[in-house]
Amino acid sequence: MSPHVLVLGGTTEARALAGELSARPGTRVTTSLAGRVRRPGAVAGELRVGGFGGARGLADWLREQRVDAVVDATHPFARAITANAARAAGATGLPLVVLRRPGWRPGPRDDWHPVPSLDAAADLLPRLGHRVLLTTGRLGLAAFAHLTDLRFVVRSVEPPEPPVPPHTHVLLARGPFTVADETALLREHRLDVLVTKDSGGTATAAKLTAARDLGLPVVVVRRPPLPDGVTAVEDVPTALRRLDALARP
Fold this sequence. Notes:
By secondary structure, the chain is of the alpha/beta class. Helices cover 30% and strands 22% of the residues.
């Protein structure tokens, strides 16, 4: 029978991986999206949208669909999905490959302030600035809703979910962004601090360069740890090699 690979997707790397796997003769690929974005881009192979019902529901689906391997290529901050994937793979005895793009690293001229959570970022903000570019996504803005003295520009692909800070200007946009674009945005709104998650990759990294060039502090929310016993690969070619190695008898 043809091998069946489930790709837990939603990232550029997941889309690229699905394309590579689908191009292999006899390989069936299903990409699963959580459904948080209303208009996901095209994905090679089969597409599934929506949750599984936790680790047990995912394990049941893996058995029903006769999946041979699971690749978790979700966003680095999709902690619950990664935990469920690890538990479901363990329950079914299936191999799991976790694909995570490398995180960002500060340079000598960067003024970075790493924090463990959005709540910690909100606690730190008043000491760093008062006009904030907030690029942590549309979820979790409740952590900043009590900061009534600060002004926020919130950028996300989809409209943010309430509650949000009272003085908020929303920009709906999808990367990649250029350094010139990000510099113009920071200057136009007279922003003096940037808040971001350590998403990694190049699509949204230009804001870090723009902040560095303008001498602005950057609050960086660190990634959650992977589940115990789980390691990650950093790119699509390595994920493919890992899958090939797992398929060998």
